Q: What sequence folds into this?
């Protein structure tokens, strides 16, 4: 079996290995009879190593955006100073004053670390990702309700504490909730998840769990300095340092597209649990005979319900947009065109059908990638050639349609001619080639008591006539007394164009 030398081991793995050994030493020192000051120094060095590892990781990996990492390093430094003060007071000096200097360091660290994570979120999704923000808020409401009832409210009703002590006691779970919300927002965002992401998720998760258990133990009087919670806190420190030392830490700042507000099964389950947290909690209080927080729970239920409705609306809007938008050109689809024709057909409406001339030659000669580039550029030019409120659709293949509501008859042909000139006058870049693309256009105008099928058939016949008469021209409107049934049998829509 091939052995990997310690020198060849990646920096992040060496740090985690050495850190795990140091944590083991921390818990072994009391067994060896070492003085408590040895444990305090060991704990502080491990805690401080997280900040140093972040700074070293920034130096060796050179991320383009360093501000979030510096905020995490400063936050961990403040946290390490809080650790030093806390354990020195409790383990060595046996000082039990609360609140004390360590609380200032601890509470000051959370906003710095949350700000660092938030900058990662904003860097990865520069545009507003409303779907993930709603999901994170739903989770935060469920978690916040639990923390208020079981951690914050009991602190505020504890008459043995001073107002300052009560405020500090409530601030701790509030800061944990802030860190959790930002981390959930980061987890629910889009983009590939690499090892540094998972380490950061583990870091925030361990800090949150350890702090919540610590708060519960403080309320119940069961907390002992140096118990198993230190393993969670120190493990979180190591994960933070490992994330910064990992070479793929640069991926945390790479922008990613804003995701469609779809939701996977796992994501929906998380949202369902978070949404049901409030009524489940109220029912649990009822069964236990505990005081009911009806106004708070009702407010949480209402907020969660409104957010879920907003989330559903976003998903419905996205599905609707996907159904009416052509993915290649960004134009409307035939389905949307037909719906618009139902709303606008009749006098004062024009319809232009456009078919690219000899488009098959483009695909055959230059490839489908070149053909797609031509179609995208044609779609862009069509959008710029029409008026605001006109409907531009890709009817299928190389055929496009433009619906012109509220227009005079004499203006329809002018717009069609402008479209033809815009396409033919400037070559279209398709890869390394410049292609001259022309189109044939058929024009129809709406009439009283005209069906949608007849309206479309009239434009279709005009388009066929443009093809038959030499292409790269506009034909129509055709005479109103020429019905679709009078089209020659040989003039089928499948005729070559």
A:
């Amino acid at each position: 079996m091939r052995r990997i030398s310690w020198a060849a081991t990646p920096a992040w793995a060496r740090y985690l290995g050495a850190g795990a050994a140091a944590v083991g030493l921390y818990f072994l020192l009391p067994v060896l009879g070492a003085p408590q000051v040895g444990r305090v120094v060991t704990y502080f060095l491990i805690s401080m190593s997280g900040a140093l590892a972040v700074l070293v990781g920034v130096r060796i990996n050179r991320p383009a955006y360093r501000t979030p990492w510096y905020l995490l390093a400063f936050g961990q430094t403040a946290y390490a100073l809080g650790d030093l003060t806390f354990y020195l007071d409790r383990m060595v000096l046996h000082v039990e004053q609360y609140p004390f200097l360590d609380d200032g360091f601890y509470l000051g660290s959370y906003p710095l670390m949350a700000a660092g994570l938030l900058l990662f979120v904003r860097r990865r999704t520069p545009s507003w990702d409303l779907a993930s923000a709603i999901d994170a808020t739903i989770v935060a409401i469920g978690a916040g309700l639990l923390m208020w009832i079981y951690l914050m409210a009991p602190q505020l009703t504890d008459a043995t504490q001073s107002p300052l002590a009560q405020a500090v006691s409530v601030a701790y779970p509030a800061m944990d909730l802030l860190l959790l919300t930002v981390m959930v927002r980061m987890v629910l965002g889009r983009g590939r998840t690499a090892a540094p992401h998972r380490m950061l998720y583990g870091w925030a998760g361990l800090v949150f769990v350890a702090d919540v258990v610590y708060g519960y133990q403080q309320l119940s009087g069961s907390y002992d300095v140096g118990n198993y919670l230190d393993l969670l806190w120190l493990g979180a420190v190591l994960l933070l340092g490992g994330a910064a030392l990992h070479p793929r830490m640069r991926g945390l700042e790479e922008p990613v597209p804003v995701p469609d507000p779809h939701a996977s099964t796992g994501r929906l389950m998380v949202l369902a649990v978070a949404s049901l947290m409030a009524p489940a909690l109220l029912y649990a209080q009822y069964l236990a005979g505990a005081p009911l927080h009806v106004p708070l729970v009702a407010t949480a239920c209402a907020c969660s319900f409104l957010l879920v409705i907003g989330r559903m609306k976003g998903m419905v809007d996205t599905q609707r947009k996907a159904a009416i938008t052509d993915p290649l050109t960004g134009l409307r689809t035939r389905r949307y065109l037909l719906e618009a024709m139902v709303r606008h057909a009749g006098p004062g409406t024009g319809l232009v059908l456009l078919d690219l001339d000899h488009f098959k030659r483009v695909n055959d000669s230059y490839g489908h990638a070149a053909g797609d580039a031509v179609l995208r550029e044609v779609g862009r030019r069509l959008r710029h050639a029409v008026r605001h409120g006109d409907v531009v659709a890709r009817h299928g293949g190389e055929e496009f349609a433009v619906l012109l509501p509220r227009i005079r008859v004499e203006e329809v042909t002018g717009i069609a001619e402008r479209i033809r000139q815009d396409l033919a006058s400037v070559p279209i870049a398709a890869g390394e080639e410049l292609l001259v693309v022309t189109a044939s256009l058929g024009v129809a105008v709406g009439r009283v008591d005209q069906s949608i099928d007849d309206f479309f058939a009239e434009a279709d016949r005009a388009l066929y006539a443009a093809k038959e008469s030499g292409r790269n021209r506009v034909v129509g409107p055709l005479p109103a007394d020429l019905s679709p049934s009078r089209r020659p049998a040989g003039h089928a829509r499948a005729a070559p164009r």
